[in-house]
Protein backbone atom coordinates (compact mmCIF):
# COMPACT_ATOMS: atom_id res chain seq x y z
CA UNK A 1 0.00 0.00 0.00
CA UNK A 2 2.71 2.45 -1.05
CA UNK A 3 0.16 5.05 -2.17
CA UNK A 4 -2.00 5.06 0.95
CA UNK A 5 -3.25 8.61 1.55
CA UNK A 6 -2.46 9.73 -2.00
CA UNK A 7 -5.01 10.87 -4.59
CA UNK A 8 -4.69 10.03 -8.28
CA UNK A 9 -6.65 11.52 -11.16
CA UNK A 10 -6.45 9.44 -14.35
CA UNK A 11 -7.95 10.73 -17.60
CA UNK A 12 -9.30 8.29 -20.17
CA UNK A 13 -9.59 5.82 -17.30
CA UNK A 14 -12.85 4.24 -18.43
CA UNK A 15 -11.05 1.99 -20.92
CA UNK A 16 -7.79 0.33 -21.90
CA UNK A 17 -4.51 1.65 -20.53
CA UNK A 18 -6.06 4.32 -18.30
CA UNK A 19 -8.34 1.77 -16.63
CA UNK A 20 -5.42 -0.55 -15.90
CA UNK A 21 -3.37 2.36 -14.50
CA UNK A 22 -6.29 3.35 -12.26
CA UNK A 23 -6.60 -0.26 -11.05
CA UNK A 24 -2.87 -0.45 -10.23
CA UNK A 25 -2.81 2.89 -8.37
CA UNK A 26 -5.96 1.95 -6.43
CA UNK A 27 -4.51 -1.45 -5.54
CA UNK A 28 -1.48 0.40 -4.14
CA UNK A 29 -3.80 2.37 -1.83
CA UNK A 30 -4.47 5.60 -3.74
CA UNK A 31 -7.93 7.14 -3.91
CA UNK A 32 -8.56 7.25 -7.65
CA UNK A 33 -10.67 9.56 -9.82
CA UNK A 34 -11.80 7.92 -13.07
CA UNK A 35 -12.01 10.92 -15.39
CA UNK A 36 -13.49 10.24 -18.83
CA UNK A 37 -15.76 11.69 -21.47
CA UNK A 38 -17.70 8.41 -21.25
CA UNK A 39 -19.31 8.93 -17.84
CA UNK A 40 -21.31 5.68 -17.79
CA UNK A 41 -18.17 3.63 -18.41
CA UNK A 42 -16.22 5.69 -15.85
CA UNK A 43 -18.93 5.07 -13.27
CA UNK A 44 -18.76 1.32 -13.95
CA UNK A 45 -14.97 1.33 -13.41
CA UNK A 46 -15.31 3.35 -10.19
CA UNK A 47 -18.05 1.02 -8.86
CA UNK A 48 -15.91 -2.00 -9.65
CA UNK A 49 -12.99 -0.51 -7.69
CA UNK A 50 -15.25 0.30 -4.74
CA UNK A 51 -16.47 -3.31 -4.68
CA UNK A 52 -12.82 -4.31 -4.32
CA UNK A 53 -12.57 -2.05 -1.25
CA UNK A 54 -10.75 0.81 -3.01
CA UNK A 55 -11.61 4.52 -2.84
CA UNK A 56 -12.80 5.66 -6.27
CA UNK A 57 -15.03 8.21 -7.96
CA UNK A 58 -16.09 8.88 -11.55
CA UNK A 59 -15.67 12.35 -13.04
CA UNK A 60 -17.38 13.58 -16.19
CA UNK A 61 -14.44 15.08 -17.98
CA UNK A 62 -13.80 16.18 -21.56
CA UNK A 63 -10.07 17.00 -21.47
CA UNK A 64 -10.50 19.62 -24.20
CA UNK A 65 -13.07 21.63 -22.20
CA UNK A 66 -11.27 24.04 -19.86
CA UNK A 67 -14.26 24.64 -17.59
CA UNK A 68 -15.06 20.91 -17.34
CA UNK A 69 -11.43 20.12 -16.49
CA UNK A 70 -11.29 22.86 -13.82
CA UNK A 71 -14.59 21.82 -12.27
CA UNK A 72 -13.85 18.09 -12.46
CA UNK A 73 -10.46 18.55 -10.82
CA UNK A 74 -12.02 20.70 -8.09
CA UNK A 75 -14.62 17.98 -7.44
CA UNK A 76 -11.83 15.47 -6.93
CA UNK A 77 -10.10 17.82 -4.47
CA UNK A 78 -13.39 18.49 -2.66
CA UNK A 79 -14.03 14.74 -2.36
CA UNK A 80 -10.58 13.32 -1.67
CA UNK A 81 -8.70 16.39 -0.37
CA UNK A 82 -6.02 16.85 -3.05
CA UNK A 83 -4.52 15.66 -6.31
CA UNK A 84 -1.09 14.07 -5.81
CA UNK A 85 -0.80 12.10 -9.05
CA UNK A 86 -2.16 13.18 -12.43
CA UNK A 87 -2.06 10.67 -15.25
CA UNK A 88 -2.94 12.52 -18.44
CA UNK A 89 -3.84 9.57 -20.62
CA UNK A 90 -7.00 10.23 -22.67
CA UNK A 91 -6.32 9.78 -26.36
CA UNK A 92 -7.64 8.90 -29.78
CA UNK A 93 -6.10 7.86 -33.07
CA UNK A 94 -6.93 8.84 -36.64
CA UNK A 95 -4.99 7.23 -39.49
CA UNK A 96 -4.72 8.85 -42.92
CA UNK A 97 -1.96 10.08 -45.22
CA UNK A 98 -1.13 13.78 -44.72
CA UNK A 99 -2.47 14.85 -48.12
CA UNK A 100 -5.85 13.33 -47.24
CA UNK A 101 -5.88 14.19 -43.54
CA UNK A 102 -8.96 16.28 -42.68
CA UNK A 103 -8.05 19.46 -40.81
CA UNK A 104 -10.91 18.75 -38.39
CA UNK A 105 -9.35 15.35 -37.55
CA UNK A 106 -5.92 16.97 -37.10
CA UNK A 107 -7.38 19.52 -34.71
CA UNK A 108 -9.31 16.86 -32.75
CA UNK A 109 -6.22 14.67 -32.24
CA UNK A 110 -4.11 17.67 -31.21
CA UNK A 111 -6.84 18.98 -28.91
CA UNK A 112 -7.30 15.73 -27.00
CA UNK A 113 -3.60 14.88 -26.64
CA UNK A 114 -1.88 18.27 -26.39
CA UNK A 115 -4.56 20.73 -25.22
CA UNK A 116 -5.90 18.02 -22.88
CA UNK A 117 -2.45 17.47 -21.35
CA UNK A 118 -2.00 21.22 -20.89
CA UNK A 119 -5.45 21.83 -19.39
CA UNK A 120 -5.34 18.88 -16.97
CA UNK A 121 -1.81 19.81 -15.91
CA UNK A 122 -2.75 23.44 -15.31
CA UNK A 123 -5.79 22.43 -13.25
CA UNK A 124 -3.79 19.94 -11.15
CA UNK A 125 -0.84 22.30 -10.58
CA UNK A 126 -3.13 24.78 -8.84
CA UNK A 127 -3.42 22.17 -6.06
CA UNK A 128 0.07 20.66 -6.29
CA UNK A 129 1.75 24.07 -6.01
CA UNK A 130 -0.27 25.00 -2.90
CA UNK A 131 2.30 25.20 -0.05
CA UNK A 132 4.70 23.37 -2.42
CA UNK A 133 3.00 20.11 -1.45
CA UNK A 134 4.10 18.70 -4.80
CA UNK A 135 2.96 15.83 -6.97
CA UNK A 136 3.65 13.73 -10.02
CA UNK A 137 2.33 14.30 -13.52
CA UNK A 138 2.61 11.39 -15.93
CA UNK A 139 1.68 11.72 -19.59
CA UNK A 140 0.85 8.68 -21.67
CA UNK A 141 3.10 9.22 -24.64
CA UNK A 142 3.93 6.47 -27.11
CA UNK A 143 6.79 4.97 -29.02
CA UNK A 144 5.44 7.59 -31.42
CA UNK A 145 6.82 10.24 -29.04
CA UNK A 146 10.18 9.18 -30.53
CA UNK A 147 9.47 7.54 -33.89
CA UNK A 148 7.32 8.27 -36.91
CA UNK A 149 5.00 5.91 -38.75
CA UNK A 150 3.11 6.62 -41.95
CA UNK A 151 -0.55 7.67 -41.67
CA UNK A 152 -0.20 9.04 -38.12
CA UNK A 153 0.89 12.65 -38.67
CA UNK A 154 -1.32 14.22 -36.02
CA UNK A 155 -0.73 11.50 -33.43
CA UNK A 156 3.05 11.46 -33.90
CA UNK A 157 3.19 15.27 -33.73
CA UNK A 158 1.03 15.33 -30.59
CA UNK A 159 2.98 12.56 -28.85
CA UNK A 160 6.30 14.27 -29.61
CA UNK A 161 4.82 17.46 -28.14
CA UNK A 162 4.19 15.79 -24.78
CA UNK A 163 7.95 15.36 -24.31
CA UNK A 164 8.33 19.13 -24.47
CA UNK A 165 5.55 19.77 -21.99
CA UNK A 166 6.93 17.19 -19.53
CA UNK A 167 10.42 18.68 -19.75
CA UNK A 168 9.24 22.23 -19.13
CA UNK A 169 7.12 21.01 -16.22
CA UNK A 170 10.11 19.16 -14.72
CA UNK A 171 11.97 22.49 -14.58
CA UNK A 172 9.09 24.73 -13.50
CA UNK A 173 7.69 22.18 -11.06
CA UNK A 174 10.91 21.27 -9.25
CA UNK A 175 10.81 24.20 -6.78
CA UNK A 176 7.27 23.10 -5.88
CA UNK A 177 8.19 19.39 -5.55
CA UNK A 178 6.36 18.49 -8.75
CA UNK A 179 7.89 15.89 -11.07
CA UNK A 180 6.83 14.84 -14.55
CA UNK A 181 7.31 11.89 -16.89
CA UNK A 182 6.17 10.54 -20.22
CA UNK A 183 5.45 6.81 -20.33
CA UNK A 184 5.73 5.60 -23.91
CA UNK A 185 4.07 2.27 -24.72
CA UNK A 186 4.48 0.19 -27.85
CA UNK A 187 1.30 -1.37 -29.28
CA UNK A 188 -1.14 -2.50 -26.57
CA UNK A 189 -4.27 -4.39 -27.64
CA UNK A 190 -6.89 -1.87 -26.52
CA UNK A 191 -9.98 -0.67 -28.45
CA UNK A 192 -7.80 2.14 -29.86
CA UNK A 193 -5.48 -0.41 -31.49
CA UNK A 194 -8.12 -2.97 -32.48
CA UNK A 195 -9.74 -0.21 -34.58
CA UNK A 196 -6.47 0.51 -36.38
CA UNK A 197 -5.78 -3.06 -37.57
CA UNK A 198 -8.41 -3.15 -40.37
CA UNK A 199 -7.90 0.57 -41.09
CA UNK A 200 -4.16 0.14 -41.64
CA UNK A 201 -4.66 -3.07 -43.64
CA UNK A 202 -6.87 -1.15 -46.05
CA UNK A 203 -4.65 1.94 -46.22
CA UNK A 204 -1.44 -0.06 -46.72
CA UNK A 205 -2.99 -2.77 -48.94
CA UNK A 206 -1.82 -5.67 -46.73
CA UNK A 207 -3.59 -8.29 -44.61
CA UNK A 208 -4.59 -7.70 -40.97
CA UNK A 209 -2.13 -10.42 -39.93
CA UNK A 210 0.67 -8.53 -41.72
CA UNK A 211 -0.35 -5.29 -39.98
CA UNK A 212 0.08 -7.05 -36.62
CA UNK A 213 3.26 -9.01 -37.40
CA UNK A 214 5.10 -6.45 -39.56
CA UNK A 215 3.77 -2.96 -38.85
CA UNK A 216 2.93 -3.30 -35.16
CA UNK A 217 5.34 -5.90 -33.76
CA UNK A 218 8.00 -6.23 -36.49
CA UNK A 219 10.59 -4.20 -34.60
CA UNK A 220 10.06 -5.64 -31.11
CA UNK A 221 12.67 -8.05 -29.73
CA UNK A 222 10.11 -10.77 -28.99
CA UNK A 223 7.14 -10.22 -31.36
CA UNK A 224 4.93 -9.48 -28.36
CA UNK A 225 2.37 -6.76 -27.77
CA UNK A 226 3.10 -4.49 -24.81
CA UNK A 227 0.60 -5.45 -22.10
CA UNK A 228 -1.67 -3.25 -20.03
CA UNK A 229 0.23 -4.49 -16.98
CA UNK A 230 3.59 -3.50 -18.51
CA UNK A 231 2.36 0.09 -18.73
CA UNK A 232 0.50 0.21 -15.41
CA UNK A 233 3.47 -1.19 -13.48
CA UNK A 234 5.72 1.48 -14.99
CA UNK A 235 3.32 4.23 -13.93
CA UNK A 236 3.11 2.69 -10.45
CA UNK A 237 6.91 2.56 -10.18
CA UNK A 238 7.21 6.23 -11.16
CA UNK A 239 4.36 7.23 -8.85
CA UNK A 240 6.07 5.64 -5.87
CA UNK A 241 9.66 6.65 -6.63
CA UNK A 242 10.74 8.77 -3.67
CA UNK A 243 13.02 11.43 -5.14
CA UNK A 244 13.44 13.74 -8.12
CA UNK A 245 16.28 11.56 -9.41
CA UNK A 246 13.86 10.86 -12.23
CA UNK A 247 12.03 13.83 -13.66
CA UNK A 248 11.34 15.09 -17.16
CA UNK A 249 12.05 11.58 -18.43
CA UNK A 250 10.61 9.42 -21.14
CA UNK A 251 10.16 5.73 -20.24
CA UNK A 252 9.69 3.54 -23.29
CA UNK A 253 7.72 0.37 -22.56
CA UNK A 254 7.78 -1.35 -25.93
CA UNK A 255 9.46 -4.79 -25.84
CA UNK A 256 12.56 -3.28 -27.41
CA UNK A 257 10.80 -1.65 -30.37
CA UNK A 258 12.46 1.68 -29.56
CA UNK A 259 15.61 1.98 -27.45
CA UNK A 260 17.16 5.23 -26.31
P1 LIG B 1 -8.86 3.47 -25.35
O1 LIG B 1 -9.61 3.90 -26.56
O2 LIG B 1 -9.03 2.10 -24.82
O3 LIG B 1 -9.17 4.49 -24.14
C1 LIG B 1 -9.14 5.87 -24.32
C2 LIG B 1 -10.09 6.52 -23.32
O4 LIG B 1 -9.99 7.94 -23.47
C3 LIG B 1 -11.56 6.13 -23.53
O5 LIG B 1 -12.16 5.73 -22.30
C4 LIG B 1 -12.19 7.41 -24.05
O6 LIG B 1 -13.56 7.56 -23.68
C5 LIG B 1 -11.31 8.46 -23.39
N1 LIG B 1 -11.38 9.74 -24.08
C6 LIG B 1 -11.33 9.98 -25.41
N2 LIG B 1 -11.46 11.29 -25.64
C7 LIG B 1 -11.57 11.90 -24.45
C8 LIG B 1 -11.73 13.24 -24.03
N3 LIG B 1 -11.83 14.25 -24.92
N4 LIG B 1 -11.80 13.51 -22.71
C9 LIG B 1 -11.73 12.51 -21.80
N5 LIG B 1 -11.60 11.21 -22.13
C10 LIG B 1 -11.52 10.91 -23.44
O7 LIG B 1 -7.35 3.79 -25.69
P2 LIG B 1 -5.97 3.31 -25.04
O8 LIG B 1 -5.30 2.43 -26.04
O9 LIG B 1 -6.15 2.83 -23.67
O10 LIG B 1 -5.18 4.69 -25.06
C11 LIG B 1 -4.89 5.43 -23.88
C12 LIG B 1 -3.67 6.29 -24.15
O11 LIG B 1 -2.56 5.45 -24.45
C13 LIG B 1 -3.81 7.25 -25.32
O12 LIG B 1 -3.19 8.48 -25.00
C14 LIG B 1 -3.03 6.55 -26.42
O13 LIG B 1 -2.54 7.45 -27.38
C15 LIG B 1 -1.93 5.91 -25.61
N6 LIG B 1 -1.23 4.81 -26.26
C16 LIG B 1 -1.91 3.69 -26.62
C17 LIG B 1 -1.20 2.65 -27.21
C18 LIG B 1 -1.88 1.38 -27.63
O14 LIG B 1 -1.24 0.59 -28.32
N7 LIG B 1 -3.12 1.13 -27.24
C19 LIG B 1 0.17 2.76 -27.43
C20 LIG B 1 0.82 3.93 -27.05
C21 LIG B 1 0.11 4.94 -26.46
From TrEMBL:
This is D-beta-hydroxybutyrate dehydrogenase. It comes from Pigmentiphaga humi. It holds the Pfam family adh_short. Transmembrane segments: none annotated. One of its GO terms (biological process) is monocarboxylic acid metabolic process. The keyword Acyltransferase does not apply. Its EC number is 1.1.1.30. Keywords: Oxidoreductase. The keyword Oxidoreductase applies. Belongs to the short-chain dehydrogenases/reductases (SDR) family. One of its GO terms (molecular function) is 3-hydroxybutyrate dehydrogenase activity. The gene is bdhA_1.
